TrEMBL record:
Gene3D superfamilies linked: Protein tyrosine phosphatase superfamily
Domain Tyrosine-protein phosphatase, first and last residues per copy: 1-105
Signal peptide: none
Key words of the record: Hydrolase, Protein phosphatase
GO cellular component terms given for this protein: cytoplasm
SUPFAM superfamilies noted in UniProt: (Phosphotyrosine protein) phosphatases II
CDD domains from the UniProt entry: DSP
Coiled-coil region(s): none
InterPro entries: Dual-sp_phosphatase_cat-dom, Prot-tyrosine_phosphatase-like, Tyr_Pase_AS, Tyr_Pase_dom, TYR_PHOSPHATASE_DUAL_dom
Domain Tyrosine specific protein phosphatases as annotated: residue spans: 22-84
Pfam families: DSPc
Highest taxon, organism lineage: Eukaryota
Protein name as catalogued: Protein-serine/threonine phosphatase
The organism of origin for this protein: Polarella glacialis
């Protein structure tokens, strides 16, 4: 993207494709330095990518964690209060959780330049898919998927003995739906191949739960029945998304291979995908950080 107003803005760019395995962590020290310098000089900051969902949100979440000492979940919720649709891809989520652990070793009483100096040697460099990486992204994704599957399995087991789970299931679908949708759309892959069969079995249980229409049984007002039916529809959609991920990822995991990912990009959904018209060797998607000195345009503060 061209620097349209160089006399009014200072521009900074992060070359960061929106894929689960892209190394966000190694870019954060430079991004934070740019942001902190701008804010420290009294300027406002506008952080954006193509759609303001994954990459730019991840940068702002990292800034909140660094500046305010917030946890990853706290920083994410702070962003969502201003922009509800923000949702870092699952790989970035796990990297930001790791970033939280790195910040726990940081001296928060020190000036921010010193804190960044301490942070730089700690962030993993290069590919997060290499065996020698200090932070293995596919292991982290697998742990996150395992935890979410565990929650679903516990809910389904509890639902088998409870007469009415309508209130609880609304919370379950709201929490798990976006996660597994993200896993499926980004073609996220865990290193643990056993998660493939586990996801299939859990997805089939979710679909059976939805097909049974348990939530709409037992009377109640028309409004409550409508809400329960909506929950069953969400459950069915979740189960189908999980099965779609299994079917798409099964061949690669079964052969012990990991997909490169990047076929879906929530921040670049409208960008050209036809490899015949756009070469993959061209400049990758980027986050553009704009430090505004003359006008107050700030999305998150």
């Amino acid at each position: 993207m061209a620097e349209a107003h160089p006399n009014h803005f200072a521009y900074g760019r992060m070359p960061l494709p929106d894929t689960t395995e892209s190394n966000l962590l190694e870019l954060l020290p430079d991004a934070l330095e740019f942001l902190c310098e701008a804010r420290g000089s009294g300027g406002c900051v506008f952080v954006h990518c193509a759609k303001g969902i994954s990459r730019s949100a991840s940068c702002v979440i990292a800034l909140l964690m660094f500046e305010r000492g917030l946890s990853f979940s706290e920083a994410w919720q702070t962003c969502k209060q201003k922009r509800p649709i923000v949702y870092p891809n699952v790989g970035f989520q796990e990297q930001l959780k790791h970033f939280e652990s790195l910040l726990s070793c940081n001296d928060r009483t020190a000036p921010w330049p010193e804190r960044l100096r301490q942070l730089r040697p700690l962030v993993p460099r290069g590919s997060l898919e290499e065996p020698g990486s200090h932070f293995k992204i596919h292991d982290a994704i697998g742990q996150a998927m395992g935890a979410m599957l565990g929650d679903l399995e516990a809910f389904l087991e509890e639902a088998a003995s409870e007469p009415d789970m309508s209130q609880r299931q609304a919370e379950v679908w709201k929490r798990h739906g976006p996660f597994f949708e993200n896993v499926q759309l980004y073609h996220a892959l865990p290193s643990d191949q056993t998660l493939l069969q586990r996801t299939r079995l859990t997805a089939e249980k979710v679909c059976r739960f939805a097909s049974g229409g348990k939530a709409v049984k037992g009377g109640g007002s028309a409004a409550n029945k409508a809400l329960a039916l909506d929950d069953n529809n969400k459950a069915m959609a979740l189960g189908k998304m999980m099965l779609a991920w299994v079917n798409a990822s099964g061949p690669s995991l079964g052969q012990g291979k990991l997909l490169l990912g990047g076929e879906y990009d929530s921040d670049s959904e409208s960008e050209e995908r036809d490899s015949g018209r756009r070469s993959r060797s061209r400049s990758p998607n980027k986050v553009l950080l704009m430090c505004c000195y003359y006008c107050c345009c700030c999305c998150y503060y």
